[in-house]
Amino acid sequence: MRVYVRIRPSTSFDRDKDVAVLSTGMNTLICASDHATSMGCNAVPEGQYVYDAVFGPEHTNKQVFALTASPLVSAVLAGTNACLFAYGQTGAGKTYSMVGPNGGQGKATGRGGGHGEETQGCLPLAAAELFRKIANVEAGGTG
After folding, report:
1. What's the pLDDT tens digit per position in 3-42?
2. Average pLDDT in the 31-54 region?
3. What's the angle, vertex CA 55, arms to CA 110 and CA 80, rounded to 5?
4. Contact 55, 65 (CB under 8 A)
5. How far apart are CA 45 and CA 113, in angstroms?
6. Can you tell me whether residue 70 is helix, strand or coil?
């Protein structure tokens, strides 16, 4: 099992709010208790937490997918079970990360206001990769 943290990009709803996360590293998250307490998150003690990877707001959904879900697609095609699970507080960005902006509504064309591949969530990206790899195998490729 691997554990990843995703800090979604800020929205108009939370632009003026205090932030409990001071910084992120490749796999480290540093929280401040004074900010966390002011946000009502006093269950999060001040400290440094280490995960398999931490994705900050500057990371795209495609980057998150490449490290988290893409290996699961390969594992499924190799015959193993896989699960991608999103957990978090309301408004934390689970839907944004899993299906994309606006709950995945709209075309994923990247043209005319649609959402391009960089912002599609892990689930549509995983489905596309799964079908792409199956088509490649059926065409005589290796996956």
Report:
1. 998 888 777 776 666 656 656 677 877 666 554 445 455 5
2. 63
3. 85
4. no
5. 41
6. helix
What letters, b where the CB count within 10 A reaches 16 and e where it falls short, cover 67-83?
Answer: ebbbebbeeeeeeeeee
C-alpha 122/C-alpha 110 separation (Å) is 16
> Torsion angle of alpha carbons 51, 59, 123, 133, nearest 10°?
-100
Amino acid at 23: S
Q: Distance between alpha carbon 127 and the CA centroid of its chain, in Å? A: 15
The two structure tokens encoding residue 131: 């079908």
- Residue carrying the six token digits 């997918």: 65
* pTM across the whole model: 0.75
Tokens of 78: 């190799």
State the pLDDT at residue 21. Answer: 67
